[in-house]
Amino acid sequence: MKSGExxxxxxxxxxxxxxxxxxxxxxxxRSYKTALNTLLExxxxxxxxxxxxxxxxxxxxxxxxxxxxxLMDTRHLxxxxxxxxxxxxxxxxxxxxxxxxxxxxxxxxVKRVRPARTPEHAPDALSMAAVDALIRAPGQQTLQGxxxxxxxxxxxxxxxxxxxxxxxxxxxxxxTPGSGQVTLTGKGRKTRTLPLMDKTGRxxxxxxxxxxxxxxxxxxxxxxxxxxSRHQPMSQDNVAYLLNKHAAxxxxxxxxxxxxxxxxxxxxxxxxQMLRAGVPLPHIKEFLGHANIATTSIYASADNQMVREAxxxxxxxxxxxxxxxxxxxxxxxxxAGLK
Length: 339
Known about the structure:
Blueprint: H1 3-21, H2 26-46, H3 61-73, H4 79-99, H5 104-111, H6 128-136, H7 143-157, H8 162-166, E1 173-174, E2 181-185, E3 191-195, H9 198-211, E4 225-227, E5 230-232, H10 236-250, H11 264-276, H12 281-288, H13 293-314, H14 329-335
Antiparallel strand pairs: 1-2, 2-3, 4-5
């Protein structure tokens, strides 16, 4: 299939199928677009193909297997990110196979490519002391400090993904004491409504009075920046910068705060706090908006590992147990039922 037909399918997939048929968010579509652009860079660098030469004949089991390795070895992406890129390519080819039957063989060939093995890491949750120090760091003496305090508190209280908070509108927030709640729109445009602590509700109400005074348009973004005298959406990079700026201040009071932090650590911290408070995993799963409880179970595994490490440290001075018996190997095997 010629290059023109390849890019025609790319255009219809990105501009029509994903937003209209799949109803995916702009953020997810940007991720898919990034995957395709990365594939084109791979083909240019390793196959020396210009855009005019790119076609489905370049997308094979062999080339996609090499693509995964290239992402991790040359681009130094994590296995998780590399797998996301591969999944996006497979999704594109699945669409192409539905549009053009001659491409079914291409899709089935690439579908056999296995994702890279990802090491299991415990969630890098912050301690409650670190969370408290981070929330207090911005202060509330300035408008920016009030805004940042409110955002950090909301990220933690709702265990929200960073984009979920940035997408919030005024209609999504209820600050009524005793029944405060926030409605988040997560992956796949799935919404979930979560209760808020009264403390968070009070901070939000104060924030709303100052940053959204008077008649409030329900569709207005809750958090924003001002550029050229106009309200503009905040970016994830904005939030990452603010978090690390305040973390540097909070570290003076709480040295255990790591050198670099990210918003997802607040989400991890909230999940671990709920787990230790006895909240069942299925409830935590719904709170976090996970599609599969296996994803949520990693918090229980992490908690067990922390307990195990604490026990090991506490038993460091405990003497080793004496052998149960002494005797020849044959006797030991017989007593153990192995002979």
